[in-house]
Design brief:
With 257 residues, the chain is an alpha/beta fold. The protein folds into two domains: 169 residues, Rossmann fold; 75 residues, no CATH class. 31% of the residues lie in helices and 24% in strands. A six-stranded mixed beta sheet has the order 6-7-8-3-9-10, sandwiched between helices. Helix 6 links the parallel strand 7 and strand 8. Helix 5 runs parallel beside helix 6. The chain is globular, with a radius of gyration of 19 Å. The C terminus is likely disordered. InterPro entries: AAA+_ATPase, ABC_transporter-like_ATP-bd, ABC_transporter-like_CS, ABC_transpr_LolD-like, ABC_transpr_PhnC, P-loop_NTPase. Pfam families: ABC_tran. GO terms for molecular function: ABC-type phosphonate transporter activity; ATP binding; ATP hydrolysis activity. This is ABC transporter.
Length: 257
């Protein structure tokens, strides 16, 4: 399993807008980190830099000892497959089957995209896709169109697709924002069970205070692109967490006694 180390990372867009400003932190294998901050704080830009879709202006991002900010596009591809994503809006292909959506998770492991289409997929890939669906409890819906499932079921398919990718670190961008509370809890239970049993590091953007306090090992908070808090979740209370979404918050080194 891999660790993630972000060192003095900055991203400046045209017009001198600092999306990320000198951010540093490390996430160990098996650690669950909640990433908090109001809209525009730099959370999404940070995720895009970690996945290699955004090139930082300065600083480094190490996956184990590999600095992905220095890799060419061709060398970045095999590293990127180690980073699994779970999105708020599921990002499924709605008019295709659940089984086909999960097979797409193997794109980083095949020479061509055609090898991830069901009629051309190898027996090994097909068996793996069914095993991933079985792990999230949806093997019986493999032939169903994705848009015929409930929101909670669709997010489970998205998690199965992520498992198909065989990642070593998971970035979850508001994975339960589109779900009702019951479905959201079920998805969080499933996601945390999977990352725990596989020893994966996970960074999760969330806004639900109760969920953050229940599932997170650590809380990292950004404000206007800067890191203002990096603390064990057990040392924080709800008012402190809620204040992270106020634009005028000043929380550096704040702790709960």
């Amino acid at each position: 399993m891999i660790s993630l180390e972000v060192n003095h990372l900055s991203k400046i867009y045209s017009g001198e807008t600092k999306a990320i400003d000198d951010v540093s932190f490390k996430v160990e294998p098996g650690e669950g980190v909640m990433l908090l901050g109001h809209n525009g704080s730099g959370k999404s830009t940070l995720f895009r830099c970690i996945t290699g879709f955004e090139k930082p202006t300065s600083g480094s991002i190490l996956l184990n000892d590999t600095d992905i900010t220095r890799l060419s596009r061709s060398k970045l591809r095999p590293v990127r497959k180690k980073v699994g994503m779970v999105f708020q809006n599921f990002n499924l292909t709605n008019n295709l089957s659940v089984f086909q959506n999960v097979l797409f998770g193997a794109l980083g492991h095949t020479k061509t995209s055609f090898q991830t289409f069901a009629p051309f997929a190898s027996d090994a890939l097909r068996e793996q896709a069914m095993a991933c669906l079985d792990r999230v409890g949806l093997a019986h819906l493999a032939r169903r169109r994705a848009d015929q499932l409930s929101g909670g079921q669709q997010q489970r398919v998205a998690i199965a697709r992520m498992l198909m990718q065989e990642p070593e670190i998971v970035l979850a961008d508001e994975p339960i924002a589109s779900l009702d509370p019951k479905a959201g809890r079920e998805v969080m239970d499933l996601l945390w069970e999977i990352v725990s049993e596989r020893g994966l590091a996970v960074i999760c953007i969330l806004h639900q205070m109760d969920v953050i306090m229940e599932y997170g090992d650590r809380v990292i908070a950004l404000k206007d692109g800067s890191l203002i808090l990096d603390e064990g979740a057990g040392a924080l209370d709800r008012p402190t967490l809620e204040s992270l979404y106020q634009k005028d918050v000043q929380l550096t080194d704040r702790r709960v006694s």
